[in-house]
Amino acid sequence: MRVAAIDIGTLTCRLLIGDVDGPGPVKPVFSGRKILRLGESVDETKQLKPEAMTRVIEAIREWQDVIERHDVRASVAVATSAVREAHNREEFLQRVKQEAGVEVEVIDGQEEARRTLLGIRSGLPASVGDLLGLDIGGGSTEFIVSREGQEVQTISIDMGVVRLSERVVKSDPPSKSEIQEAEQLIHSLTQQALATLGDTSGLTFVGTAGTVTSLAGIAQELKAYDPNRVHNFILKLETVKNIEQTILPRKKSERTGIPGLEPGREEVIATGTLILRCIMEELGRDQCLVSEYGLREGVLANLAYQFENDAD
Fold first, then answer.
1. Tens of pLDDT along 76-115?
2. Of 215, 230, 226, 218, which Cα lies nearest the Cα of 280?
3. Stated pTM of the model
4. What superfamily does domain 125-291 belong to in CATH?
């Protein structure tokens, strides 16, 4: 059945319309993404800016027209870190409902990780069994452990590419002291997560979301983003380090035009690269399997499941 999902993230908003048939992969019909930075300054002020809310609402209104044209049976919009932390989130939710006609579901970190796992699983090669998923977002990062026959473990930590940029890595380009402080924070938070998750050494390491997919695009020097070349790409730690050495010394303006880098990610790709590199070092991993599938696909799969159960 044809369903639609809008993912309202801290940095990026995404739309996916797709056909879902049971547990199989989502068949994309239409996808859209806009870097709107809804979570700008939320880490410091705990407030969503009016102009940021307006940017998102305008995008949702535009996408509602697209959804209507695609004969969708059901749709859902979810919001993550920035909205769940903002003290004025009810104002935002009311504005979206009144101005765009959409009710937004605010999901916590655990639910975000659960639906992300649904998405990741739907696009993995059949050979991948037990896995450790990593979802680097704008405001938070989720670790997901999935083992056959066991309950899924999820840990959400308050560290994402926007939050780290606003809290620590403020200079352009980043200073040595900022990089060192960021590294210490990432390693510390990862150690805390692993203390709860336990031994993950035997699990396939899978990364999803904008940082990981962007680095896969940069690694391949893609002139235009190609999901088929990014999905299931093997991103090596050595490659991440090489990209980091290219990106960090440059100013944001000097990163524009780097092959494979999505416009609008010039600032946060620095913190994203730091996060992935430090986490891989902490995990003792030399490579990461890149998944183009993530929260959007998981939201769609979850929606289809709920819709079918309600119909029964």
1. 999 988 898 899 999 999 999 999 999 999 998 888 888 8
2. 215
3. 0.84
4. Exopolyphosphatase. Domain 2 (3.30.420.150)
